[in-house]
Amino acid sequence: MKKVALITGSSRGIGAATALRLASEGYNICVNFLKNKKIAEKVVTKISVLGSKAIAIQADVSAEEDVKRLFKAIDREMGQLDVLVNNAGILLPQTRVESMTAERINRILTTNVTGYFLCSREAVKRMSTKHGGTGGVIINVSSAAARIGSGGEYVDYAASKGAIDTFTIGLANEIAAEKIRVNGVRPGFIYTAIHADGGEPDRVDRIKHQLPLLRGGQPEEVAAAIAWLVSDESSYTTGAFIEVSGGR
Question: Which of 13, 24, 55, 158 matches a 20 to 30 Å C-alpha distance to 97?
Answer without folding.
Answer: 13
